[in-house]
Structures are given as structure tokens and as C-alpha cells.
Amino acid sequence: MTTTVPERLVVRAPNWLGDLVMALPALGMIRRAYPEAELTIAAPLPCAPVFEQHTAVGSVDVIAPDMATGEEFDTILLLTNSFGSAWRARRAGIKERWGYAAAGRSWLLTRAVPRPSGRVHQVDYYRVLARELGMAGTGERPWIEPGARAEERAAAFLAAAGLEGRRLVGFAPGAAYGHAKRWPPRYVAETVARLAVEHAVTCVLVGASGDVEAGREIESALGSRRLAPGRLVNVIGHTDLWLLIGLLARCETFVTNDSGAMHLAAALGTHVVATFGPTDERETAPSGARVEVLTAGVFCRPCKLRDCPIDHRCMKRITPARVLDAVLSTRPPA
Questions:
Q1: Which of 216, 191, 212 has its CA nearest to residue 201?
Q2: Which sign, positive or negative, has the C-alpha torsion 159, 162, 167, 171?
Q3: Of 78, 97, 132, which residue constitutes the final position of a domain?
Q4: Which domain covers residue 48, as residue numbers?
Q5: Domain match, 77 and 206 both
Q6: What are the residues facing 202 on neighbouring strands?
Q7: What is the pLDDT of residue 190?
Q8: What residues pair up with 256 in beta bridges, in sequence order?
Q9: pLDDT digits (tens, 9 = 90+) for 234-291
Q10: pLDDT band at residue 3 under the 50/70/90 scheme
Q11: Are the beta carbons of 254 and 222 closer than 8 angstroms?
Q12: If residue 77 lies in a helix (H) or strand (E), which one and from where to where?
């Protein structure tokens, strides 16, 4: 058990959206371990809307990472592994500094926990840290219930677009890690066309500004296929996190590469069809009865490369027909 009970605790959350969602169970453990403490999350501010939803963490304040100082907090728990995060915590004068003994930073921490050996799922990686620091935990998966603002944003968007009451299937065709993680845009286009024409589904393309190219490639691949009005909606680069959360919660199914939006959709309880190529689903796949992970049995995966040096077989062998079958097998909520 910890020898110091924090009164003003700040948790340095992961930088990436997907990692932050995977950290929610550990954050819930921290909240339950110190119910009387003033808990604050230090995270990139674009991710702050996650904590405005209903999660295991409850109501917390969110600050930018560089705002955590010893004047405000007596303890910092680092979910990040970097040397820099520990160095900044010490320079900021925070008395208690807890985290994994990673990146040669043990001497900067007052409680350094050995990293788990072997392959560990990222959700468990964060949970193990909390557990080794004396916090009781369960095997719960990340969960999010959308708050009022996210619901209102999605309702207003769908009403303005004339899409109220439509069956929605979301697609996240981009990936921040690199092109190797992307399911081929022409495959996305074929799946969109079949859903729109054969099943009267409205397909919604979502993503960050860096994914605009992928959206354009899909629209180009659709070419002369004439979809009925309102069957394809491309909002890549035009959604903030509140709107994204609201839209994902309303989708029947979400087709996605290994991405932050994948973890968000799974935590919201949406049926997720996730294509994994160069990354390892044993380490980062979302969990839950409504998650289907599709992979190809090729010798070279998971390579974890940003760009494929050969023929991208790990993603090309996940066929549109296979994804379509998974989409149409929509599983009811538990």
C-alpha cells in the first residue's frame, strides 16, 4: 500500500485519444482509491471532452500538462512513460511522483514501479501500475456514456443534414500512426456503396484534419456510382470531440482502423468492426461483446511499421465482403 495518501492528486494522462480511453479503468481505480482527494487530470486539452462524459472517473477538472505544479498538487501519478514527464514533475516541485520505472527516470520518481514483462494489453498496462501502487481494481473495460452536450451536438447536426431517423454506419478511414494502418480506400468505397445501395444505410466518414486525404480517395473511388442523396456524409476534419462522441453513440456500427476513434466507439458501446494490420490486436484491440477484430493471416504481421515496404497484404487481404458480413452481423447491446 502507498505510505502517502494524496490530498491534491494530479494524474498525467496519455497523450493520444485511444490510449486515454484505454486508461479509463485505471483512472477509475485511482478515483475509488482516493475518494476524498482533489483529483485533476493533466491531458492534452483537445482530449478534455472525454472527461465531460459519464465515465468511471466521475467529475474531474482537466488542465494542460504543463500546468501541474507543486503549489497546486502534492502528488502526481504518471501514466506516461517518458523521461520528460518525470523531469517536468520534479522541476515543478511536486513532492510525490509515482509511475513506471521507464526511460531511465527511476531516480526522478518517489515511487517507481517495475514495468510488467512480456506482452500486456494497454488497458492492463495502466491497471497494473495502479494496482502496484496499492489501488484495488477490477477487470472492467473502458466505458463512456455520452453527456448532454455531445448528444445535443449530434442531434443538431443530424437534423440540419436531414438525417434524423436514418440508419448510420460510421467509417474512420484514416490513422495517425501511418499509411500502413489504413484499410485501402477503394475497399472502404466498395463497402460504402453496398451498404448505401443494398441496405439503405447512411455512411458517415469521420476523422481528423490529417485524414482528409483518405476521405477524398474514398469519394474518388466511388467515382460514377450514384448514391442516393444523404447516403454518404463526409465530415472528416469538421468534427470536434463532442460531435464525434455524439455521432459514434448513434451509429449502428463503426468500421475503423486501429485508431483513437475505434476505442471511443467501443467504450460507447457501439458495434465496432476493427481492421488490424501492422499493429498488434493483442496489445491494443478494444474489448467487449460488440467488438469484432478482423486480421489477415500473413507471416509479416504485426510489423508495427508506419509504411509497408512490400505489398500491404495484411490489410488488402481483409476483403470488403468480409467487412460487410461483420457490419451486417450487428450485435445487440448487452
A1: 191
A2: negative
A3: 132
A4: 8-132
A5: no
A6: 168
A7: 97
A8: 172, 274
A9: 999 999 999 999 999 999 999 999 999 999 999 999 999 999 999 999 999 998 889 9
A10: low
A11: no
A12: strand 75-78
User: Does 3 map to a domain?
Assistant: no
Find all residues with CB under 8 Å of 223, minimum gap 6, and list them. none
Q: How many domains does the chain have?
A: 2
Helix (H, G, I), strand (E, B) or coil at 2: coil
The amino acid at residue 247 is: L
Q: At what angle do helices 260-267 and 241-250 cross, to 10 degrees?
A: 50
Is 276 domain-assigned? yes
Domain of residue 75, CATH code: 3.40.50.2000
* Interval 42-86: pLDDT, tens: 999 999 999 999 999 999 999 999 999 999 999 999 999 999 999
pLDDT digits (tens, 9 = 90+) for 190-239: 999 999 999 999 999 999 999 999 999 999 999 878 899 999 999 999 99
Q: Look-up: residue for cell 472502404?
A: 188
180-194 burial code (b ≥16 CB/10 A, e <16) = bbbbbbbbbbbbbbb
**How far is 246 from 144, CA to CA, in rounded Å?**
11
Helices (H), ranges, 23-142: 24-33, 83-91, 122-132
Same domain, 112 and 202: no
Q: What DSSP designation does 94 have?
A: -
